[in-house]
Amino acid sequence: MSGAYPGRDRRARRIDGRVGRERIEGDGPRVAVVGGGIAGLSAATVLAERGVRVTLYERDAQLGGRLAGWPTRLADGSEVTMSRGFHAFFRQYYNLRALLRRTDPGLNGLTGLADYPLRHRSGGQDSFARVPRTPPLSAVGFVAQSPSFGWRDLGRMNPRAALPLLDVGVPGVYESLDGVSATEFLAGIRFPKAAHHLAFEVFSRSFFADPATLSAAELVLMFHIYFLGSSEGLLFEVPREPFPQALWDPLAKYLGSLGVEIRTGTAVREVGSVGEDRVEVVAGAAVERYEGVVLALDTGGLRGVVSASPDLVDPAWRARIAGLRTAPAFLVSRLWLSRAVAGDRHGFLGTSGFGGLDNVSVLDRWEGEAHRWALRTGGSVVELHAYAVDPAEPRPEVEERLARRLREVYPETAHAEIVDFRHEWREDCPLFTVGGYQDRPGVRTGDARVVVAGDLVRTGLPVALMERAATSGFLAANALLGRWGVRGETLWTVPDRGRSAAGRMLAGLGRSPARAR
Questions:
Q1: Per-residue model confidence (pLDDT) at position 505
Q2: Do residues 190 and 423 make contact, with C-beta atoms less than 8 angstroms apart?
Q3: Which of 12, 41, 62, 236 has the greatest number of C-beta atoms within 10 Å?
Q4: For 17-65+242-324+437-489, which CATH superfamily applies?
Q5: Quick one: which of 506, 468, 477, 484 has its CA closest to 92?
Q6: Averaged over 317-337, what is the pLDDT?
């Protein structure tokens, strides 16, 4: 942290929570938080710190949601931790980092990666290591260094169509671009085809979606958050140990010290109204009453609970929830290899043109557990990701193809035996479809007792992915605390507008009413 700011950007935006009493003394109201991922943990933390009695329900045996981890035994007898794969902790994730600071004030459990190159099969490779952090120097510096996107490409772009990139705000970006796909937007600004992997692999495919089905508003918002609107830069950090040990075990202990009752392995089936003041939560054979509930579930989980709760909120809201969609399946393959990957390989490499392989992580470059296994065996731990997998492809064929592509990307792995492997197939990420923004739930539902949190939620703020989950959790807690006159949590975001007055003026000239919805 830098003084009064959560990072280095002096234009970061502060959103103060509601003014009120510091906390509730005595027996405070009871709140059920349904879901133990980032959003649910964020909400539970703020509520418990203010004196609310919190019960946290998580259907899985582990906390963390999409960042959960669990023990597994390898063929060589090693006890290791498996997870759903690599996640980047960008320095713009102010609210997620604020959550983690509860148990690690200096964020010493995170370590920065010096670079994460993007390699195209044609031979080009882009790097972010020496790109300046602050716009517009970041854009100028990137173009000066990039083999994929040069000055000629910049000159060929359609400047009027690209102007919205200069002034991104929420909800304005959705009002103007939610009706356009990411593919259409890039075609319209004549983004060079040789550099499409920069947009798709870095931004669009972060949503596990085909860019032809993804709202351009989400793509443009990502450009703003990570590149054109923030001076935190494009480099990121990763946990030094697996997710449970580095993040969730300490946070669970902290929540326990605040009196939070954590019920893992407990799925909530239904939520109903009890009079005007309470809700009833059904989990297994148990039925309990609360003064409020935070629905911090993934898309499928939220649909399931809402469909089983016929009197929750109102019919129109329930219909919108029923219409939410999930992104296509994705694969995380982790391989424990008998030989080490070459010493100059990066901890994370984005890839394009390699037959569905989206990135390669060498975990023993940064994760302590993987590093210790590699030292002990002389091997290496490698993770492969494939996003938006065609459902018609047989899964074993996809798994085998990724292993073959690894040998193409890192040829030295062709001589390594696979000591063991784990394949994780998941299909539970939200799909932000073209034109779907207005049907996504907000934090508030129309029923003051019921709030929603998660990365599928409309927050009204320039946040995405893990940061949207954490931010929505804080907002959900604030909404409930406001009912009881308790102060809310302060939030931070990247600037909610372009960084220069000239850029904002030009962007205003480029906006087209025809694209508004």
A1: 64
A2: no
A3: 41
A4: FAD/NAD(P)-binding domain (3.50.50.60)
A5: 468
A6: 96
